[in-house]
Amino acid sequence: MNIPPDLKYTKDHEWVRLSGTTARIGITDYAQDALGDVVFVAVPHIGVAVSVGDSFSEVESTKSVSEIYAPLAGKVIAVNTALDGTPELMNSDPYGEGWLCDLEISDVLAADSLLDAAQYRALIGD
Amino acid sequence: MRTSPLDARHRSLGAKMVPFGGWEMPLSYQHGTVSEHLKCRSDAVVFDVSHLGTVRVNGAKAKEGLQRAFTNDLEKIVPGRAQYTHLLDTDASVLDDIIVWWIDQETFDVMPNASNTSRVIDAISGHDTTESRAVLAVQGPQARQRVQTFSVDAATVPRFAVRRVNIFGTECVVAGTGYTGEDGIEIAAPISIAEKIFDSLLIAGVTPAGLGARDTLRLEAGLPLHGHELGPGITPLHAGLGWVVAWNKGDFRGRTALAAIRDAGLTRKLVGISTPGRRPPREGCVVSHLGNPIGTTTSGNFSPTLNHGIAFAFVDIKHVEPGTEVTIDVRGSDLAGAVVTTPFVKKRSG
Fold first, then answer.
1. What is the complex's ipTM, to 2 decimals?
2. Which residues contact B127 (CB under 8 A, 6 or more apart)?
């Protein structure tokens, strides 16, 4: 299972890439594998403010639907529009082209409470 | 949990295994459901369907017994042919939908859905031979050409024909049947040669496919699944499968109740619904017309061939006309759609 060491993770199988006050968010390799073929992503709305744990997106596969929860508090400032026509990017490149959205986060220190790669690897029993 | 004779093969291919009807079977392999689905429409795939039941019924009275149990009429076919039929409950609900392989004059293989095998045996008696064989469904426009690389006899069994065929020196039963809307064959093989046949199919370039693709393929082809479009409270008439009921033969189980429902007139019926967006409608969603609820979906998914959502739903008989505009409430989001004729994906000509 691919778990890049430079990212933060949640127990809901999302990843967070921090640069300054911007947090890029996506689903992990483990999550995309468990979901199976992604056929539709309801991306969040730009400008929406979210609190930690808010359900703000849905990922649908041929098998099931999965809610995506905000890993940090903040405001949605960008979404991956490529997912509209090619949601399978979440399967083929979950940490790259298959990203979900960018959050302008209100509390950078809050990211310290997220899991690091080793903790996430332990969580999924990999 | 029961496992297929090909279980080790599935695991070595990296299949995701899921419980299904008391069996643990492949959901998908390495490349995923959508890829397997498209391979079946363009080339050839193999499904391990060993979880289906096989009930061998034979003897001088076998045919008579099946005629009394099932809705369809074996007089429409001859030995060496297959027939789709229903077993009804006394209230005319569909207890199971079944393919009957009429192998020779006094020998039938009745193939129920996995979880219904015991109730079918209760109704028709016969011997459960499920443990003794594997069943492989090879489906797709290139299926026969690829099977031909190791068995010309199996590859040339015509559509809806049933033949005893020697494969690798061992007798199998091969039928020109399937559940995908594509041409193909199904091979019931003794366990001793199941792996050899499976391996030969892979060597011939056939892609293994799992239950995920089997479900999206049957849905596109407009084929019902028991437990969804068929089951308690649903008769063949509600499901639009009136052709499965032979009124001009003698009595069969559920006939009296079914005739009463027919004479009273149906109040709801199964329809296909097409939704233009990619978001898949799902089972159990409320269907509305002009803001009023008219029914509920029974299956729904993303159609890999059409690139949009498709669903089956039971709706009020007043709203079954193709073209009727509907909305499907998917967890609070309204998906716009329309009633359409099925199959959603038409069979290729030839």
1. 0.91
2. B55, B56, B57
